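Let's sit down with a protein and look at its sequence and fold side by side. Which protein we use is up to you, so please pick one and set it down. Label the sequence line and the structure token line clearly, so we can match residues to local backbone shapes. Go ahead whenever you are ready, and we will take it from there:

***
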Amino acid sequence: MGSPERILEIKDWDRNLLLEVDYSVLDHPQSYIITVNAAEVEQILGFKAENLGARTLWNADFEEILWKDGVAQGVGASVEGERADIRASVVVGADGPQSRIRASIGSTTETRKYNESFLVGLVGRVSELGDRARQYQAPGKMLGIMPVGPNASYFFYCVGERRFDELKREGVGQFRGEVTEAAPELGEAFATVEAWTRMAYFTPSFIKVDRWVGNGVALLGDSAHTFHPHSGQGVNVSLQDALVLADVILDALKAGDTSAGKLASYQTSRKMFADVIGQHAHYTATYALSNNWLIKRLNRRALKKMQKNRKLMKRALEITAGVFTKKPGLIEQARIGGILP
């Protein structure tokens, strides 16, 4: 579906190269970036699930978890306006950052909201990129361009504190001109963009959740964690979580025990990765966008150090891509961030 890129170029707003990130330094079978259309991934997974006997209910709204003796037995839902009780051995809540499933099991959250909003979307091919991805960054500004196969590109663009209705009033033409002024190589890719239909607007947040499981319940995806898009790891981490959760549920069903204690190994196995990746994304995004003179200086220093030190680059990439095995210590994080030499 996508095309692998081993190099990510990070440039400033004057198009000067700040860092050339080489994913081939990773000791991993997939040592590259690959960007795909999330809607196509969802369609493929849905098709495979239905072939295995799963059923998708459209026009359905979650209402409540059904409990018996303190253990979830399923959910009550409204399906096309009518009440339906759906029985399940385990309820998996993948209902987003405002998760009602999460609230139902009493989980608490730590939320960091960002001031800057983003527009993301798909446009045409950027021939100049070749087999590379590219990101521009400056205080208050960020623009990323990632190839999606041979004929399309994914972009994410920081629009600051502007609301989507403001951007719409200004018009697609104005937005297209703003983006292509920052990155002229996007001119051809944006040439046929005349509407907002392939773009989405959102204001990111970094959400840490204390409890991922309850009796007969588990959280997945954005209901368990959200990251700044600077990391590009939200879907990756969620898919890895799902693989672990599937095995944990299978073991629980075999044992006839779907309690929180039995499901806890899922959280034990995966929460550390989400917390570290989310914190790293928070710091790198804050560094990249900050107008603070000290933070700007530290950011430049960190990028220069990483360009010269491939071992440091490798460690930073392991954290970004979630392929580390040990939680990084404070000293190591300070070195990656340019705070310590």
About this structure: The chain is about 40% helix and 30% strand. The first strand starts at residue 4 and ends at 5. The chain has three domains: 4-34+115-202, 57-112+205-278, 290-336.
